[in-house]
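Protein: N-acetylmuramoyl-L-alanine amidase
Species: Dinghuibacter silviterrae
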Amino acid sequence: MVLFGIYLVKVTLLSGLLYAYYHFLLRDRQTFGWSRFYLLAAAGVSVGVPLLNIPLHLTVPHTGTPTVAPLLKCIPGTGEADPAGAPMATAAPVIPWTQVALGLYALAGTVLLGLLVYHIKALFRLERRSEHHQMGDVTLIATDAPGTPFSFFRWIFWDRQLSVHSANGQAIFRHELAHVRQRHSVDKMFLQLLCAVLFPVFPLYLIRRELQLIHEYLADQAATEEEDAGDYARYLLEHALYAKGHRVAHAFHQHPLAKRIAMIGRQIHPPAWSRWMILPFFLAGSALFAFTPTPKAARTLTVVIDAGHGGLDPGAPGGGLLEKNITLDIARAVARLAPGYGVNILESRPGDSLVDIEDRILFAGRHKADAFVSIHVNLSSPGETGIKNFISVRNRFADSSALLGSLLAGHLGRIYPTEKVLRTHEEHIGVLDRNVCPAALIECGYISNPKDRAFISKPANQDKIARAILESLADYANGRGGKTLQIQGGSQ
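Structure follows.
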């Protein structure tokens, strides 16, 4: 929900920026066709660009010692696998406000989409019970329904009392035919859907309103090609007392008459080059909201990334995959992406070789590593799933390791289900117990679980895991830590 909220803010700001540019610099100053293109592009870009994920690395200065909440009592594990999982600490029930907000949003969006479907179905009901006249590729539907004439895609709903062969009728028919031929209903449905799904984004309503007005300008322009502008303005005034048109259709009389009459026959033709003056602004504004801020270490942090197993030790097998290959791929992804996060990554196992546990620890000491992160995958019954994080409470870096593990769990939890506790192991884990720096071990899902296996075997997801690890390390370097997770005993 937080990510979706950020997305809505980005859409609102970008659409507001693009609409403001239109309102102050383009409105009533450009050709109507160009204005239509700009408004459609502004809506599409506003919705699409924030979905892009272009990392923008931000350096956060170190402001002091991180505040770490007191650790809960460590519950030692038994050293044996527990298919049901380790017992979780009970807590007082809390109201899941995030889920409540998301549910209310979904409910409101469903209601708005339902209203849109209701209005469309009303048009289909009207079409079925009315008289049809085929006029080329357009269907003229004669009806006594209020609000006619109006158009919807290739249907023109026509007032039975208005002769299509009269001068008045011919002008109005040309107007509605322009809506059909220029596919204005497609534009309108696109904006209606956006406004229903992203209803808190107010600038989208402004874009929709302006686009509907541009549609009328274009249709009026087509209608006056064979009609005196003064006579056509009179026709508009004669229909001013008609009932309001259908919500999802284009009604002849529906939009502000004063502006439409003022714009009849008025078509500004600026130099062609002037239209492209908006391009730098358009691209710059769009790019601004395509970036996703990611933390970058204010000081260079040296971290050993330890790919578990290797060489003659394949690790856990599952689904034709081997743990040693998956861990090496993830470690390499961390090393490849690290420069953008200001973290110096050293690989304890850069290739498919068997590296002794003591050599991994000596490697960290020799390079004066600030932290050590060991990458593994788990193996258990097929029902076990999710990422788990392990630390040790047996060495002098227990508190720092707990902070590091908590940050890892937080960032990894954003991309895949992750246990919200830190685990220890009753048995000896050398890379944790005897390390020369704060250390954490990540079990990146279960190779025995088809869903986990499918996730961790895809390079794109391995990059996601790598970025989550690097974001955690950048926060760790910057002293950005919150509440340390509970520590529980458990087995690998």
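Remarks: Residues 2-52+101-287 form one domain.
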